[in-house]
Amino acid sequence: MSSPGRSTNWNAKKGIALNTVQTEDLYALLSQPAAPFREHYVKRYIAAFCDRAHVPYFEDDVGNIVVGVDSRPAYRRVVKLASAEPLRIFVAHMDHPGCHGVRWRGDQLMVRWLGGSPVKHLRGAKLWLATDEGIHATARLEKAHIATHGRAIESATLAIDSGLTLLRSVRAADIYGGFSFRAPVWKMRDRLYTKAADDLVGVFSILQTAAWWFAKRRTDPMFLGLLTRAEEVGFVGAVEHFELGWWRAAKRPLLGVSLEASRTLPGALVGGGPVVRLGDRRTVFDANGLQVLTQLAQQHLRTQFQRRVMDGGACEGTAMTAYGIPTIAMSVPLGNYHNQGFEGGPDCRVAEGPAPEFVHVDDIRGMLKLCRAVMTPRVFRQDSWRPTRENLLQNARSYRHLL
Questions:
Q1: Residues contacting residue 268 through CB under 8 Å, at least 6 positions apart
Q2: pTM for the complete prediction?
Q3: In the prediction, which pLDDT does 22 show?
Q4: CA-based torsion, 136, 138, 144, 150: positive or negative
């Protein structure tokens, strides 16, 4: 079998054609159980992938995975390297909204919810449950209490459908879960339906970019990946990583690259290509970097990309910006954001009820191609606004006789 780091073929219309191994990698990653602070299965998958692809990685002090270097000293060496070339720091999160067990009440499990969720038509919704020890079970949502802000479940009562005996052998607090559908992931036409595309698609894109970069035996220390925990409750893993202070001694420019699966919006539709994300619900991103990213998208994706402020949610680009890191961002448009049936489709029983998230294969291909383009040496050292400035000046000169 080919290595996960094997490069793929370029396609002018569709970006990068995923080979069989990459498709298997994507399905395997989307199948992993994940909830805020319960990213263990995803982390194990990442470790196995990096080992197979010969990509260095290590775990930071709070459990995030850093891809591209194998230790804290190596990380600091890359950051402290005296270079005019920006260090690209790709960021995506490993968690998805889900629940944590709180206590047993007879054979029912009381849970609290972390992150967003549907708030309508919840009774009878199916959930998967897991523990880090490998116990898996299924449940139904019996009763839900909605948070005072009205945008998500706060707590719920679950009736266990399968695996009750095994579950009762562990503490309630060791159980976590999320909404479940006909399968962890399946394909219909060119759409992938899954329990959680947000943000495992971003994780996939960073891993594939790392595998491609190191398979080419790149020696330029330009790439880092930061795969974070607990983004869904306020960028907790990212913030804790920034607070470690490892960037404070930087002797080179740093460039954050936020990757997300973001709620589809007018002007950013599923199947329309990856989105050059100008900002999120909280902030706009770096104008100079976004100008370069737009030019790269025009060059490599032609018309198969979109450009928009994706304000349906916030992303770790906000956290990086808050910590003074110039940041660019890109997104794959996401249907049924946070398992809310906004767009409907298979396994969505009622509008706005629980539903599988979905993304388009071509959008993922485009994101992979754009990630590779971002790694082009010297591209972020150019005067990206020069053509615009020249056009503005030419226009101004044509009116000088009227001044």
A1: 262, 275, 306, 308, 310, 331, 333
A2: 0.93
A3: 86
A4: positive
